[in-house]
UniProtKB/TrEMBL annotation:
Gene3D superfamilies: MetI-like. It is found in: Cell membrane; Membrane. Coiled coil: none annotated. It comes from the Archaea. SUPFAM superfamilies: MetI-like. GO terms for biological process: transmembrane transport. This is Binding-protein-dependent transport systems inner membrane component. GO terms for cellular component: plasma membrane.
Amino acid sequence: MARRDVINTSIWAAKSIAVVFAELVFAISISFFLIHAMPGNPYQIILVGLLQKGIPYEQAKIMAAALAGYNPNTNPIVSWAGYMWSVFHGNLGYSLIYRAPVSKIIATAAPWTILLVAVSLTLAFATGYILGLYAASKTGIVDSLINGTLSFFQSIPAYVLALILIIIFGVLLKIAPIAGAYSSNVTPGFTAKFILDVMHHLALPLLTYYLVIFPGWVFGTRSLAISITREDYVLVAKARSLPERRITLTYIGKNALLPQLTALLYSYGLMFGSSIFIESTFAIPGLGYVLSIGSGSRDYLLTIGSFLVIIIAVILGNFIADVTYGLIDPRVRGV
């Protein structure tokens, strides 16, 4: 790699990291000001609770500031800096509902959301990409049937689709659990019994996620493939009488894959935000479920902490997508 290319790559990497850091600081700052703007701020709620337990006032003030992650009685700039320091060190405050640190609650809930998002999104991407290429290569009734069916599923809201699946598979057919991540009589652990029980319980949530996002990947891939079909190199390949399968997979499929892979990385972050309705409907103890519990119970620190984690996931997803695209396409790095 030439010296100039190394310099351009270093500048591009530094800019990307600086943008991510600025976005993180902005997101954390917004959460700080939201806490201050809320009626009956968390610091006062925690302080009153400690005083009711008989803890001396001065000691209660110190404990409330530590549990809330900030002290509203200090200078706003100092309070903001203290909150930033706490967040970057994993202190998101104390949950009044769960009676535990918010970071600990989120660390327990996040794996369930990550599992649901990763499995459903990856399956939807892979199958949607294949069906999108197939739909683009067909015309007439086949293409119309695919588009019509998927348009129908895409028009159904996620929570309505979840209720339909619960009624069909959980109530009428009784072949899948309708709530919970695992059975109460199963001990959590890396055992075959627990893993199979989790798979059984997560079947309907995964199917709901899959049906909600699958049509988008089919339509996206189909649109890209149709636009690539009009490119000169595809027309030349057809003029050379190359097999249709080879043209679809090699000339069209490979060129449609890169934009879709970039969109996939973006989607991993965005899917965290769409987990609220589905996890709440199926009572899966993920981030969406924790967020709904916190907001419904006016647990401000838990609510804002959950939102903050979702925002950070979106920012990191965008960053990973930008870096990946830059590594694949040197033009993005200015090389």
